[in-house]
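Async update (no meeting this week)

Hi team, since we skipped the sync, here's where things stand on the single-chain job. The sequence we agreed to prioritize is pasted below, unchanged from the tracker. I ran it this morning and attached the output directly underneath so nobody has to dig for it. Comments welcome in thread, and please keep replies under the output.
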Amino acid sequence: MNRTLQETHLWERKDSYEPRIAAVHDLCGYGKCSLGVAIPVLSAAGCDVCPVPTSLFSAHTLFPTFYMHDTTDMLKPYLDAWVDEKVGIDVVYSGFLGAPEQVTSIKRLYDEYPKALRILDPVMGDDGCMYPTYTPELCEAMKGLVSQAHLLLPNLTEASILTGVDYKGQVISEADAEKLIDLLLDQGAQTVVLKGIEKDENTIINYVKAQKSSLERVEIEKLPYKLHGTGDLFASATLAAIMAGASILDAVRFSSRFVVDAIKLTIQQPNYELRGVSFELVLGEITNLLKAKKG
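Output:
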């Protein structure tokens, strides 16, 4: 029997318990994205965010000059220390990776916390291009995580890389979007959110489908601005809503609106094109979710 995404919850919120999230992402000194987004957004949802930094950047990769430090060598002793201290983790949320070997660290977390929710944002590229720090080897290694994801949140570029289907631009039919999602579900992902499809010059569509569910679409206003970090914000806000007790479909509806609200404030900031999406003034929308859950 098919299940509805409106009724499907990935997390049962207990008011007295603060869930712990291992956030496996990079950290940028300037330019809001990755851990700089995940930590405050998930904290606003009443979560204890435990960073696992995959790389350290002076600034994100759209800047002409940036410094990157690969943290691969520190991840084993870092996670060994968690084991020694008996750190408990409820969610493994992974994003940008700095090297193929870091996939091993994520799989280790999956093994050590077998009951943890697995959220995979396969941050590999956008607009048909891989990010400059990514390699074909790293993208291939990322495919090894898809089969274990409870929730997978690719954009069209990333879905194309993961499935081997040619990227055809941001405007595709609903049938083609569902085919991409079905290929990812066939690889083992339990639920897929395919984000950022352009319906027309005024509308963005985020599609959602799970194993044994029908396709759902969430339409949102398209704004005439291209900002760095919106994908990270969307994924983090989706997880924040899930952790606050929202269903999968309601979480995607929430994060879609949340990102648009943040973009509208961002364009009032200096140097907003490179600075990254300014979400701080709308964090109250996330804490309101939690308040509504507590009722």
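Quick observations from my side:
The radius of gyration is 18 Å.
The chain is about 40% helix and 20% strand.
Reply here if anything looks off.
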